[in-house]
Amino acid sequence: EAQVTQNPRYLITVTGKKLTVTCSQNMNHEYMSWYRQDPGLGLRQIYYSMNVEVTDKGDVPEGYKVSRKEKRNFPLILESPSPNQTSLYFCASRRTGPYEQYFGPGTRLTVT
Amino acid sequence: GIQVEQSPPDLILQEGANSTLRCNFSDSVNNLQWFHQNPWGQLINLFYIPSGTKQNGRLSATTVATERYSLLYISSSQTTDSGVYFCAVMNTGNQFYFGTGTSLTVIP
Question: Which of A60, A95, A101 is the best substitution to test chain B (most B C-beta atoms within 10 A)?
C-alpha cells in the first residue's frame, strides 16, 4: 500500500532532550516536507526537500533540523526541544511536478 | 510568502444541506489542493486542482487561477463530512502555504 509513515505517533518529552521523528514513504517521491499544525494557525511548513541531499527552509525552520540521505526517508530532528514546539507534526511527500501531496498520520509532540 | 484566506471559518449545517467553501490566495500558484482533516486528525486529499473544475461524488471544486480563488462545493452533506477543510497552495519556489481552514459541523 502506498503510504507515508511517521514514528512515533505520540511523544511526551522534556525540555532539552534531543529527539528525532522519522518519516518514510514508499512511493519513490522526490519531494518530502515537514509541517506543524497549531490551533488557529493551520499548517505551516518547517522544511522541505526536493531530492536526496537537497533541503530548504520553510516558513518556521527555527529549532529544527532535517536530513535527506535516502530518497525514502526524511527525519525531523529537534536538538533541544522547548515547550513552544509542542504541536502536531505532519510529514508529506509528492512527485516533482504537477502532482498532489500525500500526508502521513501525524505525530503529536508534547514538550514539558 | 503567499497569504491564503479561507471562508467561512466555521460552518454548521443540517444534514442534507449544500455548502460552498472559499479559498483566496495572494499570488500565482503552481499547485492547489483541498484537504479534509477528520476528527481523528487525518489529512485526506480531496482535490488536486491548480485550475479548472473537478467532481468526485458529492464534492466538486473549481479554481480560477487568474482571479486567485478556489471553491469547494459540498452537496447533500452528511455527518461524516464534519471536520476541517484546508486549502493549500504552492509557490514557484516549491513552498507550500495553508489556509487556517473551515471547520464544518454537520448535524443530523
Answer: A101
Q: How confident is the model at residue B51 (pLDDT cuts 50, 70, 90)?
A: very high
pLDDT digits (tens, 9 = 90+) for A14-32: 999 999 999 999 999 999 9
Instruction: Write out the residues of chain A at the interface with chain B, using a CB-CB cutoff of 8 A.
Output: 31, 33, 35, 40-45, 48, 50, 56, 58-59, 88, 90, 98-103, 105-106, 108
SS (H, E, C) chain B: CCCEEEECCEEEEECCCCEEEEEEECCCCCEEEEEEECCCCCEEEEEECCCEEEEECCEEEEEEHHHCEEEEEECCCCHHHCEEEEEEEECCCCCEEECCCEEEEEEC
Hunting for cell 504537477 — which residue is that? Answer: A98
